[in-house]
C-alpha cells in the first residue's frame, strides 16, 4: 500500500464496483479463466489494497490492459488509453498533480537503472513539482552517472534515483534492501542497454535477470514492483557505429526473449515485476519522438509514469 492513498483507493474501488455491468462481468469470467492457468501469481503487488470482493476479477484483468496506450497520430504529445470496452471499464486516467501527489504522499519511491530510468524520474518529478521547482533541480537531475535524491516536503514523498546500469547493480540493490530490512513502497527497475552495448551476450543477460528474479521472489517486499522496459531502438538513428552494430534488431530480439524467459515479469509468466512497457509506448509515439533512436521525448516516460500510477490505484 502506498501511504496516504488507501482511503482514496477504497473510495474509488467502491465506486467502480458499482459500475460493473453484466456485459463486463461476462468478459471478466473469460479473463479469469485465462488467469487461472498462470501457475504463480504473487500477492505482493496488491497487498493491502485488494479484498476478496467482487472487484477482484476486475483488478487482475485490468493489469493486462495497463499499457494499452494510444497516441494521437496528429499530435505526438497527446496520448490516451485505448478506447476498447475492456480498457474503458478499467477507468484508467492521466492523474492531475493533486491526485498524483495524494497517491504518492508519505511514500518512498526508488527508481534504479540507466538513463531511461533517469528520464522516468524526470517525468515523475515533473508531475508532482511545479515548473519553477523543476527548473531549480534540473542541473542536479541531469548529472550523468550518479545517484540522486529528492524529497518533496509538502507531501512527504522521498524519491531516490539509483544509477544502476547493469543487472548486477539491481540485484545488489535488492540485496541491500533485504539486508537492512528497509523496503521502499514503490520500486521501479530497468536495465539492458548497457549490457547490450558493453557485453552483447543475451544469455548472460538472461542469467542475471534470473538471479534478480530469485532475489525478489519470496523476499520481504510488499512493495509495488515495476520493470521499466527497454525502449524501441531505431537502429539507423543510433548515434555511433558501435551501437548500430552491437544493438542490431537481432540482438534486441534476443534480449527481449531473455526477459520473457526469465519469468521476471508479472504479465509474462507471473513474475514479481509489473512491466511498464516502454517499448510499446515509444513505438506508438514513433520516430518523431526521438533524436537518437534510443532516448525518447519526455512524453513517453510521462505515459509510463501514468501507467505506474494507475497500477497503484488498482
Ligand atoms: C497536443 O496535445 C497536447 C497535450 O494534450 C496539447 O496541450 C496541445 O495543445 C496539442 N497540440 C495541438 C497542436 O493540438
Ligand atoms: C482529483 O482530486 C480532486 C481534488 O482533490 C478530486 O475532486 C478528484 O475527484 C480527483 N480525481 C480523481 C480521479 O480521483
Ligand atoms: C554495477 O555493476 C558493474 C558490473 O558488475 C560493476 O562493475 C559496477 O561497479 C557497478 N556499479 C555500481 C554503481 O554499483
Ligand atoms: C555468454 O554468457 C554465457 C552465460 O554467462 C556464457 O556461458 C558464455 O560463455 C558467454 N558467451 C560469450 C561469447 O562470452
TrEMBL record:
<dbReference type="GO" id="GO:0016020">
    <property type="term" value="C:membrane"/>
</dbReference>
<dbReference type="GO" id="GO:0016407">
    <property type="term" value="F:acetyltransferase activity"/>
</dbReference>
<keyword id="KW-0472">Membrane</keyword>
<keyword id="KW-1133">Transmembrane helix</keyword>
<dbReference type="GO" id="GO:0005794">
    <property type="term" value="C:Golgi apparatus"/>
</dbReference>
<dbReference type="GO" id="GO:0045492">
    <property type="term" value="P:xylan biosynthetic process"/>
</dbReference>
<feature type="transmembrane region" description="Helical">
    <location>
        <begin position="17"/>
        <end position="36"/>
    </location>
</feature>
<keyword id="KW-0812">Transmembrane</keyword>
<protein>
    <submittedName>
        <fullName>Uncharacterized protein</fullName>
    </submittedName>
</protein>
Amino acid at each position: 500500500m502506498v501511504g496516504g492513498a488507501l482511503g482514496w483507493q477504497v473510495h474509488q474501488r467502491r465506486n467502480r464496483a458499482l459500475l460493473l455491468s453484466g456485459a463486463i462481468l461476462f468478459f471478466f469470467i473469460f479473463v479469469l479463466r485465462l488467469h487461472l492457468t498462470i501457475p504463480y501469481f504473487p500477492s505482493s503487488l496488491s497487498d493491502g489494497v485488494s479484498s476478496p470482493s467482487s472487484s477482484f476479477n476486475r483488478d487482475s484483468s485490468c493489469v493486462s490492459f495497463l499499457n494499452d496506450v494510444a497516441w494521437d497520430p496528429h499530435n505526438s504529445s497527446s496520448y490516451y488509453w485505448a478506447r476498447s470496452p475492456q480498457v474503458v471499464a478499467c477507468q484508467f486516467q492521466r492523474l492531475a498533480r493533486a491526485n498524483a501527489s495524494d497517491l504518492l504522499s508519505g511514500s518512498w519511491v526508488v527508481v534504479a537503472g540507466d538513463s531511461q530510468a533517469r528520464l522516468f524520474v524526470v517525468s515523475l518529478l515533473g508531475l508532482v513539482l511545479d515548473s519553477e521547482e523543476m527548473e531549480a533541480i534540473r542541473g542536479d537531475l541531469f548529472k550523468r552517472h550518479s545517484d540522486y535524491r529528492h524529497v518533496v516536503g509538502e507531501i512527504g514523498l522521498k524519491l531516490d534515483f539509483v544509477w544502476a546500469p547493469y543487472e548486477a547493480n539491481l540485484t545488489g540493490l535488492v540485496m541491500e534492501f533485504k539486508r537492512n530490512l528497509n523496503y521502499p513502497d514503490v520500486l521501479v527497475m530497468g536495465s539492458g542497454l548497457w549490457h547490450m552495448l558493453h557485453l552483447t551476450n543475451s544469455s548472460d543477460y538472461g542469467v542475471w535477470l534470473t538471479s534478480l528474479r530469485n532475489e525478489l521472489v519470496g523476499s520481504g517486499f510488499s512493495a509495488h514492483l515495476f520493470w521499466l522496459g527497454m525502449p524501441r531502438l531505431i537502429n539507423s538513428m543510433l548515434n555511433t557505429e558501435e551501437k548500430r552494430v552491437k544493438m542490431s534488431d537481432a540482438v534486441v530480439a534476443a534480449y527481449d526473449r531473455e526477459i520473457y524467459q526469465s519469468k521476471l515479469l508479472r504479465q509474462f509468466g507471473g513474475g514479481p515485476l509489473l512491466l511498464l512497457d516502454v517499448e510499446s509506448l515509444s513505438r506508438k509515439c514513433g520516430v518523431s519522438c526521438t533524436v537518437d533512436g534510443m532516448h525518447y521525448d519526455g512524453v513517453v516516460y510521462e505515459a509510463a509514469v501514468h501507467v505506474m500510477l494507475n497500477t497503484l490505484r488498482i
